[in-house]
Amino acid sequence: MKPTRTRRTARRAAATTAGTVLSLLLAACGADGGTSDDKPATAADIEGIKTAKAKVRSYAEAPTSIGITQPVGKPIPSDKKIVMIGAGPGGIGTIIAHDAMAEAVKELGWELKFIQPKEPTPQLLQQALEQAIRLDPDAVVISATNKDPILDQLAKLKAKNIPVVSNNGPDPSGGPITIQISGLDALSELAVAIADKTLADMGEPGTIGIVGLPGYRIVQEYIGVYKEEIETKCPSCEIVETTISVASLGTTAGTDMTNFTRANPDMKALFVGYDAMGTNLFSAAQAAGAKLPRTYSLGTAPASIPALASGGLTASAPLDQGEMGWRTVDALARIFTGQTEGALEHDVKYTHPVIWSSDLNNVPAAPIGNTFPNLVKDYPAQYKKLWGK
Fold this sequence. Notes:
Keywords: Signal. By secondary structure, the chain is of the alpha/beta class. The protein has two domains: 4-17 and 36-59 and 186-317, Response regulator (Rossmann fold, 3-Layer(aba) Sandwich); 81-182 and 321-349 and 372-386, Response regulator (Rossmann fold), CATH 3.40.50.
């Protein structure tokens, strides 16, 4: 792992005001606009962190609606066969989404087959899609997948008029992707929310560590959004970055990230780009006798909820993959009834992003098994109503 540092010196210099004015601002802000020895706060930092703090409380409340109110309104055909391609064993969210889809399709009399590649490499994803094509399904679902390495397979599906629904992917709806559900736009909302929480907790400029996962382009892209939010609201903040490999998930990832924090002892916060990367981070840090900085994540894994409750994981922006499984089935129901445009209107209807944190008093009880707490408590009932069930 080779960390890289980014310091927004030009932006910071442009934002610095006259010394007397800045001193007055710092005095007025007190602890909220404090300074550290090597990263003095500018007027832009103070205002940005103040704005982040004001926004955090709005992220504490979970939505009560799935955001879709228009019923399908037509008889939904039964006996449809759907093939879902996983994103590898490290893609825990896609496994949760599949399990939820399996429950949802029972309501409509459909069949669901799951093909899980050993890793999300281009070759293995291509093989999985070729297998799906041979099954001649009515639709294919892909997850957290970049379209470029699988363009040949997507073209074959399009030639056979087989719709492709993507979840958590970096590519927009259109072309070979019939619908992108919770793509970069939706995930960017979560990235902005957790960046705001990071700054609100820090209260002053400092060094923020970021851990990326190159095997998933979507993760790298919303990490970019997180960085942009930090840089915009705290020009004096310094960012140090590293990446871990997909192969390290569940094995050396925790140790690798612990070593990253030990190599950067001035780090005030750590952002784990994809939460499942950090499921063994806290045990690895404890074994090494290392003290972690405040730690943040996106796409909360079920196994991380106890760490949230204890405060070991400072905050996380959950993505309800179970609800996404039902949302995917709803989109397919509209596609199969000739309402693709209507489905496109509902693909990213997140009511608002949510942050879980012990200091917000909203961490749910740890789930049993590989399930996920419902953000919208009764979302299955809301979808069934849309389907006339």
